[in-house]
Amino acid sequence: MNARESKVLLYSLIASLGGLLFGFDIAIFSGTIPFIVPHFNLEPDQLGWVASCLYVGCIFGAMAFGRIAQRLGRKPSLILVSVIFIVSSIFMGIANTIDSIIFWRIVAGFSVGGASILSPLYIAEISPQKIRGKMVSLNQMAIVIGILLAYLSNYFLSGIEGNWRWMFISGAVPAAAFLIASFFFPESPKWLIYKGKLAEGTRILEKTVDAAELVSELEYLQSQNTKGKDSIGGIYRSIFQKPYSFLLLIAIVIAVFQQISGANAVLFYAPIIFEKVGMDVENQLLIQILIGSVNLLFTLVAIRTVDKFGRKKLMMIGAGTMAVLLLLIGLSFQGDFIPQKFVSALVLLFIGTYAATLAPVTWVIIAEIFPLRIREQAMSIASAFLWVACFGITYVFPVMIATLTTFQTFTIFGGLCAIYFLFLWLYVPETKNNRV
């Protein structure tokens, strides 16, 4: 790795801390489930709402931060995300009513939605083309590190008084670290050039790409610089017209299927799943740490392979393999086809497959598929649909697992993955060589 790529790596690692906050905030709730359910006497549908209300905020955050990032820039927007994380984490922890927790989870979701588009957007714009997939995948690595840290936090805090309160408050720690670190990376050079700050943007771009790519990038950026002359309304009208409307449809579908593939149901509700095979609370939280570790390990595999094999191929491998594994997990709860002692191994393999394929590559494609002129707005729309799907699956899963058999629940998810495999095969283009 040369000096320029080392700088890109440093900037990308700092920006990806937004993804770490994203992962931490969505995972911390799983550890609170065994404690807040009896504390507030929650029914399955109430638990589904408390869990999923975060994603109401995510929907609005994803939409709002597309506009905020365009006006203020990527760096100030990421700083704002970290501040909202700190405040919401503290107030969730000191809440005395379930309505207060719901309110502050929605506020936290607003920042999660912002982080979901800002970190991959910034990293894609600052990275040279040949390592862009690897760098954007760092955001997913940060997300899974955040998930793992949340699981570890839950495990170690579970034995103290007021455990669920401290679990929520612990989110302020990584948020504060990100707030401090965010002052040490530059603004996106491409955003600066969009805004007419050519000299400043070029100066940063020179630090991240070699001379040949610099000339090519500047020519491309100037050819796309009609963006600054467009009204917001004009950009949105363009998004819903050819040739961009089909790209938007593809981005929405891959965003939605990342959420309804069943992986997030396993990540968020692992205690409920493993309770059905007789695990106590301590072992449920311990297996979550193992899930988080596998998630991280296989995300590292994705970082090594995404620029080598391309985006579409990895996504197809992931969707097909996950469909089979979900069927096997379902069968382990149905009769004597597969002994339940293998459930943990199947779940870990399923999460590993997701972490190496759908989880990181979805964000890479969404960051690459759109041209500069419509990128923030189109990414915002796709991300908003992602959070709508995440809200739906998080709300519905406790009800599904309570009203359907476990076999039926996982078979439904397996069928969705099979449908997704066909969609990827037929309609999704390879974006590896797209200009960003």
TrEMBL record:
Domain (Major facilitator superfamily (MFS) profile): residue spans on this chain: 11-432
Q: Which SUPFAM superfamilies match?
A: MFS general substrate transporter
Compartments, record wording: Membrane
InterPro entries per UniProt = MFS_dom, MFS_sugar_transport-like, MFS_trans_sf, Myo-inositol_Transporter, Sugar/inositol_transpt, Sugar_transporter_CS
Swiss-Prot/TrEMBL keywords: Membrane, Transmembrane, Transmembrane helix, Transport
Is Transmembrane there in the keyword field?
A: yes
**Topology with respect to the bilayer:** Multi-pass membrane protein
Query: Mainly resides where?
Result: membrane
What Pfam families would the database entry show?
Sugar_tr
The transmembrane segments are: 9-37, 49-66, 78-95, 101-124, 136-157, 163-185, 246-273, 285-303, 315-333, 345-366, 378-401, 407-428
Family classification: Belongs to the major facilitator superfamily. Sugar transporter (TC 2.A.1.1) family.
> What name does UniProt use for this protein?
Sugar porter family MFS transporter
